[in-house]
Amino acid sequence: MGHMENPYNKPPVLILGGAQNSVSIARSLGRNGVKVYLSVRQGENALFSRFVRQSFPYTDSKNVHGFWKNLLFNPHNQFLQGSIIFPCNDDAVEFVALNQDRLKTLYISWRIRILKYDWQCWIKK
Predict the structure, then answer these.
(1) Closest to 123 measured CA to CA, from 53, 30, 38, 46
(2) CATH for 13-122, options being 3.40.50.20, 3.40.30.10, 3.90.440.10, 3.40.1280.10
């Protein structure tokens, strides 16, 4: 099964960090027509998922916050704006918490996504 298009105008998702959990999220959402972007450590299996539209691997775990700042706030990456940010490890949760004021002007917060979107209607039963 290939990528489904986005028939319900679902916002894209940007997965930050994680490992196996990132693969699961990318597969579940991608199968249901959600554009999935991903930023995980170089070498993670999630980078090879056919459901990931574009990936942004990082190599330096000690400077991952700097990498994500450049990724999310760089004017060249405006196509990511409006995505739901899905933090999938401790570094990502910390990054979102430390940068929430700036992130909320450009992205859909993972905190409010549950209130704003009914994820159950996205998943085919």
Answers:
(1) 30
(2) 3.40.50.20
